[in-house]
Amino acid sequence: MNQTPFDLQGRVAVVTGGNAGIGAAVAGALAAAGCDVAIWGRDQERNRDCARRLAEHGRAVLPVACDVSDELQVERAMSRTVEELGRPDVCVANAGTAARRHPSQEYPLDEWHRVMGINLDGCFLTLRAAARRMVEGGAGGSLVAISSAAALQGMPGSPPYAAAKAAVLSLVRSLAVEFARHGIRANAVLPGWIDTDMIGDVVHGQDSRAQATREAVLRRIPARRWGRPEDIGGAVVYLASDAAAYHTGDTLVVDGGYTVF
Ligand code: NDP
Q1: Does 111 fall in a domain?
Q2: pTM (2 decimals)?
Q3: 212-240 pLDDT, tens per residue?
Q4: Does the Cβ of 73 fall within 6 Å of ligand 1?
Q5: Is residue 94 within 6 Å of ligand 1 at its C-beta?
Q6: Which Pfam families match (predicted)?
Q7: Is 144 within the bounds of a domain?
Q8: By alpha-carbon position, which residue is closest to atom 19 of ligand 1?
Q9: In terms of domains, do 155 and 222 share one?
Q10: What's the first-to-final CA gap in the chain, in angstroms?
Q11: How high is the ipTM of this complex?
């Protein structure tokens, strides 16, 4: 059988927030490339539904209930994944939440902490747990964090979201340097506007404000369309694969040209 450098046959991947949106597409792309995949998310019913859908790829898909902002739950989820599938070769820290919008001078600290807890602490806890297992295994691996184009631009009215996503870029660079000697790479993907539930009110909202926002955003996307979750799946498969063997500590922007316009 001819193997491409993108072939991931026999590898094990973890995808947090793998039961919906971008995470489900990433999990599907990794399974299609040959990975056994653990899908972590808080809602185990949704994890199971997604695992059933992904069974078509003929790989093992393990649903794991986990809130990534909770250290103990992350450690347990990783142990369960290792027991059932083996040590991860690929770990995608994708789970994330939008932030409630408030003017920054009034931004509530509890919402700041909630968003940081999922989008930054959750990313750190997940990648830390995976890196430990990769170091123990001695076979290297690929860590991928799903950041956001907002990391480059800021997000007026949602400061913790953009701050967490920017911090993730720095986290990935630290991990890349620290773990390079173990053959572990770390990179971030920065999606632009991707059509998922997270931005459903902008993409599908019917009121006049949503329509005006939609038109304004679309005018700023040179590709003239919303991103699809699958657009991110391909980028992650590349970073997970041997095609990216020399690619580490970097950011891959997948936004239809939004941030260069
Ligand atoms: P969705 O809202 O569609 O999905 C979010 C996923 O994250 C769900 O699977 C959810 O599962 C999971 N999740 C949320 N909180 C937690 C938690 N505490 N622990 C574990 N899992 C959690 O979002 P998207 O698919 O759009 O977003 C995925 C990632 O991409 C996020 O990090 C987001 O910030 C980023 N992104 C998205 C963009 C977009 O335009 N859509 C643009 C740029 C970045 P459950 O509720 O079961 O826990």
Answers
A1: yes
A2: 0.98
A3: 999 999 999 999 999 999 999 999 999 99
A4: no
A5: yes
A6: adh_short_C2 (PF13561)
A7: yes
A8: 67
A9: no
A10: 43
A11: 0.99
